[in-house]
Amino acid sequence: MRGYFAIGVERISKALNIGNLFRSAHAFGASFVFTIDAQYKRHEGSRSDTSDTLGQLPFYSFPNLTSMILPEACSIVGVELTEQAVELPSFRHPPCSAYILGAERESLSNELSKRCDYLIKIPTKFCVNVGIAGAIVMYDRLNSLGHFPRRPTRPGGATFPLSEHQYGGAKIRKKMRQFKTEPPLSEVKLAELETS
Known about the structure:
This protein is α/β, with parallel strands linked by helices. It has one domain: SPOUT methyltransferase, trefoil knot domain (Alpha/beta knot, 3-Layer(aba) Sandwich). The chain is about 35% helix and about 15% strand. Helix 1 links the parallel strand 1 and strand 2. Helix 1 packs parallel to helix 5.
């Protein structure tokens, strides 16, 4: 899968929820994890983060939104249950993105919502736990951008492995080889080409 993704939280206070989210991020192949204005104590979060994500991935703790720095061309995707948000099954994930979830009993801050390139929502009747929400978003990303065989048309139907990737011919290399072997144009021929 091309690109990368990161996952973070804003203003969250329950370390076990963050640890659970970070463990899932590690399992799904996140490139880094982060918090914004959160009270995260690593030793408390490690009780639910049994994979030691912070020992394996870069971790950024931004004290506030203005201090948040993400890689260039990284899309910010807010996960929020609002009317304006796109439902997750209809969302096309950007190749390089940082997903941000809000606090347990609050929404993303207005400042962060305005800074997001996209707002998405999981089509549920009410909010789910932040760790579960993050895992659903990461699974959807993997499912939609990963390279998997199509689902069978009926329950229990046969699945077929993907065919091997077929590489095209080295067209550019052939042209370059031809260009390198041709004799250089003389100054007379160049002058003729310029005047014609």
